[in-house]
Automatic annotation (TrEMBL):
This is Aromatic amino acid aminotransferase. Residues 27-388 form the Aminotransferase class I/classII large domain. NCBIfam families: PRK09257.1 (NF006719). The gene is TyrB. It comes from the Bacteria.
Amino acid sequence: MFETLKEQPADKILALVQTYREDPRDPKIDLGVGVYKDASGNTPIMRAVKQAEQQLWEAETTKAYTGLAGDPAFADAMIAMVLGDAVPRANVAAAATPGGTGAVRQGFDMIRMANPDARVFVSDPTWPNHLSILKHMGMEMVPYRYFDDESRGVDFNGMMEDLAQAGRGDVVLVHGCCHNPTGANLNMTEWKALVDLLLKTGATPMVDIAYQGFGDGLEEDAAATRLIASSVPETIIAASCSKNFGIYRERTGLLMAVAADASAHKLNQGTLAYLNRQNFSFPPDHGARLVTMVLSDDALRADWAKELEEMRTGMLALREQLAAELQRLSGSDRFGFIAQHRGMFSRLGATPEQVDRLRDEHAIYLVGDSRLNIAGLNKDSVPILAKAMIDVGI
Ligand code: PMP
């Protein structure tokens, strides 16, 4: 029966990694895949995570199953990190998932269980996995305007016009911070206006927050998620620990369902546990346990927050250096958006031909939609990129 299978499109970003690996040129610069890298191009294990891992190795006495929703201490620690005291803990149901992707997938699953006809409104563009998962699940998606090709900021008026079409029973998917792939984000006034619109239309927000701590700071990056969750009756939140704890391969994430009051908790919690059970039973524990240990120990937490802050400010400094270098070379301010964007990515707004030329003529690898991973740069490669960008006419 396997012959009836259809070839599935390869993940474009993962295919790019392979082409980069096989490229014999030196130097070559990988600004493609969405992984944080330090100035030497390594993706380090964070100090506090390594320490927690050592402690865990000493102290762990069993590998027996945890609960279907994972260890409740992980949920508590993550809910506190993402939501602070924006909503009462009793209103939040939560389940550990394999990575943020698992949380996104099961968030969609929960939506489909609650309303099989739900339409999911997605930003144009969004993380390609949002689209492919929704397509795989056969769920209806409606793109909303998001990126303004002229300013390289958010087309907020277009976004609001499109989201006015979402009604009760529909879902509006937003990126809590550090929008992937554009790097363009709403300001707090705009988030408030979006909340007012959600209250008016009755559509349910789903927040994907995969980069908390990579934009303006741990608390600042959670502000929009907290505002939404505390303002509307129901919110779905998919959080990833891959980036901010640097534990990509441990597959650590949390799906949260925030309700208007505690009465829905039992039903929502039961639904999340049921979904885990159907999909993979117990969620991975190792990464979740490390996160719990780091967040609950004052010294580990302080060291983790310090290292995360160093990563964040390092990326900001690269943004500023690149914008300044481009300003110097072009004599124009049109690249200022690179310093305004937040998170690991910026969409340059270059044509596919220009992206091809960067790769073919300069050995600089960007995703085809001109998404640039800022963390792939260092002080020395910034001037090389800036010169190449001007050379190919960006
Ligand atoms: N959402 C967005 C927007 C992302 O960029 C990512 C990471 N690429 C994720 C979710 C989930 O990542 P992971 O499954 O590795 O935790």
